[in-house]
Amino acid sequence: MDKIVLYHGSPNKEVVPQFGLGDDRHDYGRGFYLTDDIDLAKEWAVCRPGDSNGWVHQFELDLDGLEIMDFGKYTVLAWLAELMKHREASDSKRYRMLSSKFIEKYGIDTANYDIMKVWRANERLFKGVSG
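^ thats the sequence. predicted structure below, dont judge the formating
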């Protein structure tokens, strides 16, 4: 039985994970976002403007029987396609047309996974990358 410790940062003192909550427009859609990086959880705890206090909640997760999607086993294009499913990076007609083609070509069906192991979607990922 594999177990891992993960953290969730929140402005709420008490948190109870519930299925189906969250926002479709978050990086990976609806879900309860956790990290193995306690410092990142601390950032999440105070990510709203004006927040000065927050809480980091620790969870022990039993992985037995869970379906885990690990984007580290795929190219970065599959990961970008997943982000594009949920983000509206541009309201241009061209973006909408091209993004759907990109998702069709590189996207992966993630509907049946319980957990998605992903990179953090921010500017740090691309620091030092040029092309």
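Residues 123-131 have pLDDT under 50 and may be disordered.
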